[in-house]
Amino acid sequence: MKAVVYTQPGLPIHAPQSLYDAELPTPKPGARDLLVEVRAIAVNPVDTKIRASRGGDQPQVLGWDAVGVVREVGPEVTLFRPGDEVFYAGAIDRPGSYSELHVVDERIVGHKPRSLDNASAAALPLTSITAWELLFDRLGVEENGGEGQRLLVVGAGGGVGSILVQLASKLTRLTVIGTASRPETQAWVKALGAHHVIDHTESLPLQLEALKLGPVDYVISLTHTDTYLPQLVEVLRPQGKLALIDDPAQLDVMPLKRKSLSLHWELMFTRSLYKTEDMIKQHQLLDRVAQLVDSGVLKTTLGEHYGTINAEHLKRAHAMIESGKARGKIVLEGF
What we know:
- This protein is an alpha/beta fold.
- 30% of the residues lie in helices and 24% in strands.
- It has ten helices and 15 strands.
- The chain has helices spanning 45-53, 118-122, 125-138, 159-171, 183-191, 204-210, 225-235, 270-274, 281-294, 311-323; strands at residues 2-5, 20-23, 33-43, 66-73, 85-88, 101-105, 109-111, 150-154, 175-179, 196-198, 216-221, 236-244, 262-265, 302-305, 329-333.
- Strands 3, 4, 5, 6, 7, 14 and 15 form a seven-stranded mixed β-sheet that branches. A six-stranded parallel β-sheet has the order 10-9-8-11-12-13, with helices on both faces. A two-stranded antiparallel sheet has the order 1-2.
- Helix 4 links the parallel strand 8 and strand 9 (175-179).
- Helix 3 (125-138) crosses helix 4 (159-171) and helix 3 (125-138) packs across helix 9 (281-294).
- The longest helix has 14 residues, at 125-138.
- One of its GO terms (cellular component) is cytoplasm.
- Homotetramer.
- Pfam families: ADH_N, ADH_zinc_N_2.
- It is found in: Cytoplasm.
C-alpha cells in the first residue's frame, strides 16, 4: 500500500527524508480492529511534534485524523461492518493514517457525518475529541449548564479552538471569550460563535476589564500556556478552573494556590493508550458530533485543502503547522 513515512526524527521539514513516499505491507486487523481504506486525513500539531521526537529503524507513519470506509473487521468487532463510512483520530502508540489502509480499534471510531464530504469530515475527529473532553470531562461543564459563567479560550482560532468555541457556544450557556491576534482569525472565531474576541498579544486582564467580562470562571489554554500563565491566574475567579493541552518545558503552578485554582491537562490519546474502561466514550462522542453536524448545530473546521495525500503536500502542511499561522484544519484527500 502507498504511505508517507519518515525514519530519522528531528529533520527540518524541507529536508528530503523528513517525509517521503513509500510502499508498505497491508496491515492486519486485531480482534477489535477495523481495517479502513483511508479517503482523507487532516494534519495536527501532534504530527509535527512526533516527527521531531520519535523515530526508528523501520519507516514511521504519522497521522491522527482520518475518514474512510471499513474494508475488514476483526472477530470481536460489534460496532461496525464492512462498507461503513467512518471517521476517527486513531491511537498515538500505533501507526498513523498517512497510508492507504489503516488499522484502528473500533472503540475510538465514529460513523462519519452523512452531510459532509470526506475532506470536511477529516477536519473534525481529533479536535472534536480534545475539545469535548476539555469542556465536559476535564472542566466538568454540563450541557445546557454554565448560566452566568464565563469561559476564556486562549488560541481560539486553531484546530481545537475552532470546534471548542462551537461546542461551548451551542451546547452550554457559558459566555465564550476567544482570543486571536489577526483580523481574519478574529473574524473566524466570531463566526464560530464566540460572544467576544480579544487579542492575546495585548493585556488579557485589561481587555476583559474594558469589556466588563472579568473575572472568568474557566480558562482553556491551547497554546503558550507558560507565557500567559500569570495573566490567566489574574483573570480567573477564586476556585476557578484552568485546562491546557500544550507542552510547556516548565510550568510553575504555585501561583494557583492563593486562589485555590484547579489545573486540568487533556490528552485525547489517554483512553486508547491505557485501554481505559471508558475507552468506548470516544466512539460515542464522535457519533454525537456526527449527529450535531448533520443537524446543523456544528460545522466543519476545515481551513485549507492541500490536495492529494503525498509527501510533497504533507511537507507543505507540516510547514504551515510549524509556522503557527494555520487557521482551522489542513486536510488532504485521496492517494
